[in-house]
Amino acid sequence: MSTLLPAYVLLDLETTGCTPTLDRITEIGLIRYEKGVEVGRWNTLINPEVSISPFIQRLTGITQAMVPHAPTFEQVSETLLQWLDHAVLCAHNARFDYGFLKNEFKRIGITFQKKLLCTVKLSRKLYPHHHSHGLSAIIERFNLTCHQRHRAMSDTQMMADFIDAAMFELGEFKVQEAAGILLKQQAIPVSLNHLDISAIPETCGVYLFYGDSALLYVGKSVSLRSRIFNHFQSDHSSAKEMRIAQKIKRVEYRLTAGELGALLLESRLIKEYQPIYNRQLRRERQLCAWQVNSDPNGSPLVTLINDSDINWRDMENVYGAFKTTRQAVEVLNKLADEHGLCDKALGLERGSGICFSHQIKQCRGLCDGKESAKSHWLRLVAALSGYKLLTWPYAGRIGIREHNTENDISEIHVFDQWCHLATADDHHKLDEVTGPPRFDRDTYRYLLKFLNRKDVEVIPMNG
Fold first, then answer.
1. Helix and strand totals (H; E) in the chain
2. Is the dihedral of CA 273, 276, 282, 285 positive or negative?
3. Strand 116-118 to strand 88-91: parallel, antiparallel, or no bridges (unpaired)?
4. Degrees (nearest 5) of the Cα angle 25, 121, 138?
C-alpha cells in the first residue's frame, strides 16, 4: 500500500474551451484516496448550458447530443464538494482545472478554495531529465494503456497509473518528498518550476514577466516576493490572469529605494516596452487641457491647449489633462449637461441665437440674457474644479530622496514642473540631469500623493 498524501483526489475535467471565465465544464472524473487506499471514484457528464464547438467534440468525443439531459454544474456541486472534502486536489496542470472549478462555483455564489498538487510539476520534479511532461508524454514514457484519451475518468486513471509507476521506479519516499515540496511551492506556474521565490527579496521594486520572446507584464510592489507569489496564487478569475500564467517563462525584478521609485520605474518600463497585458500606464501621445478665459465675457470662453503649451509655473484656470481631444470634448459636454452651462459659450455649438440646450431647458440662459456672464463663468470654473491642474509649487527643480535600510539602496528622484527628469543613486550625478520637462499624467498623480506626506524628504535644487 503506497501513500502519496493522507487524503487526496485525482481529478480531470473536460471543458468547452481554455478560458475559465467564458468556457464551461462538460465532464468530471475523479478518484479519491485516503491513507493510500482508493475509497471511491465518480464520473459524470455536465450540461455546460452553452454550445460545444465541433473541434472540442472531435477532441473529447463529447457531443452536443450527449449533454442536454446531463446535470448542470450547480446540480452536482454539493456532491463534488463532498468528494473533495478535506483532501488535496491533484490534477495534471492543476491550475487549469482549478480555474474552471473556481469560476463554476463562483457562478453559483460559492467561494471555492483547495490545496493543489499538480502532477505535471510532480513529473518535472521526479524526472527532470525528460523534456516533456504532458499526459501523452507520460503515457508513452511508462507504456501506460489509455482507453479514452481526453475523457475525464480515463485521463484521471492515467494520473493514478503514473503515480504508481513512479513509486515503483523511484520509491515511495522520494515521491512523497517531491509532493511535499510542491505543496509548499504550489503557486508557481509549471513553466517556472525552477524559480526560487524565497530568493526574491521582500522589498520595494518592479517585476517583469516574460514569455518565450516578449514582455508580458510589468508590475510593482513594496513587498516584491509576496506580490509575485500572490500573482501566481491567482485563482484565474480573469482570462488575462490565465493567459499570463500559461505563457510566462521567465521572471525578472529590479529593486528600488522606495515606493515612489517603484511607481516611476513601473510607469517608465510600461511606456517604453508596451507589455502585452498592461493596459494602464501605456505611452501617452500629446495631452491636452482646457484653459478658461479669465474674462467672463471673453471669447472664446474656453480654449483647448496642448501640454507643450502649458506654463506649469502659472496654472491659472487650466483643467485636464486629457489623453485626446475627443476625451476633452466629451468631458466638457458632460459637465455642460450636468451643470446647465451654455453650449454656445463653450464653443460646443455653433450659430447665432439661443443654444439647443436652453430650448430643452438644460442651459440656464446665458445665451438668452437670463444669466450673467459672471455667474455662468463661476459655475463653469466650479464644474471643472475636479480637473484642476495645480501650479508647480517650487521655484525650480526639486529632488525627493528615498532610502531603503533593508538593502541600503538610496535614490534621488528629480522633478520640475510636475515632470520626472531622472533618478540618480548618487548626489553627485544630479548635475548630469538635463533635458526639458515632459508632462506625464501618472507622474503628476504620484507627486500629488507623495508631496502631501510628512515623511517625504524634498531637496530644493538649482536650475
1. 14, 15
2. positive
3. parallel
4. 80
Q: Which of 447, 428, 449, 431 is closest to 439 using CA atoms?
A: 447
- Among 74-83, 268-277, 303-312, 354-363, top mean pLDDT goes to 74-83
Per the model's pLDDT, the better-predicted residue between 193 and 321 turns out to be 321
DSSP 321-384: EESSHHHHHHHHHHHHHHHT--TTTTTSS-SSSS-HHHHTT-S-SGGGTSS-HHHHHHHHHHHH
Structural domain boundaries of the chain?
A: 7-186, 197-273, 288-387, 398-460
Q: Which of 283, 328, 282, 333 is nearest to 305 (CA)?
A: 328
Architecture of domain 197-273: 3-Layer(aba) Sandwich (3.40)
Single out the residue of 286, 203, 216, 220 nearest to residue 446, CA to CA: 220
Q: Which three cell numbers stand for residue 301?
A: 470662453
**pLDDT value of position 46:** 98
pLDDT value of position 66: 97
**What is the average pLDDT value for the chain, to the nearest integer?**
89
Amino acid at 444: Y
- Rounded to the nearest angstrom, the gap between the alpha carbon of residue 303 and the centroid of all alpha carbons in its chain is 37
End-to-end, the C-alpha distance of the chain in Å comes to: 78
Q: What is the DSSP string of 127-155?
A: -TT-S--SHHHHHHHTT---SSTTSHHHH
Work out the burial of residue 166: count CB atoms within 10 Å of its CB; fewer than 13 is exposed, 13-18 middle, 19 or more buried. Answer: buried
Distance, CA of 359 to CA of 442 (rounded, Å): 40
Residue closest to 217 by CA, chosen among 280, 285, 151:
280
Per-residue pLDDT, 56: 95
C-alpha distances out from residue 185 to 124, 137, 174, 212, Å: 14, 24, 17, 23
| pLDDT tens profile 320-357 | 889 889 999 999 999 999 999 999 999 999 888 899 99
CA–CA separation, 251 and 238 (whole Å): 21
Q: Which DSSP string do the residues of 202-268 spell out, in sequence order? A: SSSEEEEEE-SSSEEEEEEESSHHHHHHHHHH----SHHHHHHHHH--EEEEEE-SSHHHHHHHHHH
| Coil vs helix vs strand at 392 | coil
pTM here is 0.60
Q: Which of 62, 70, 8 is nearest to 35 (CA)?
A: 8
Task: Give me the helix-helix angle, 441-451 and 259-273, nearest 10°.
Answer: 180
The whole-number pLDDT of residue 237 equals 56
pLDDT of residue 196: 61
Query: Which residue has 469560476 as its cell numbers?
Result: 103
The CATH code belonging to domain 7-186 is: 3.30.420.10
Instruction: Report the distance separating Cα 232 and Cα 318, nearest Å.
Output: 43
Q: Strand pairing of 205-210 and 88-91?
A: unpaired
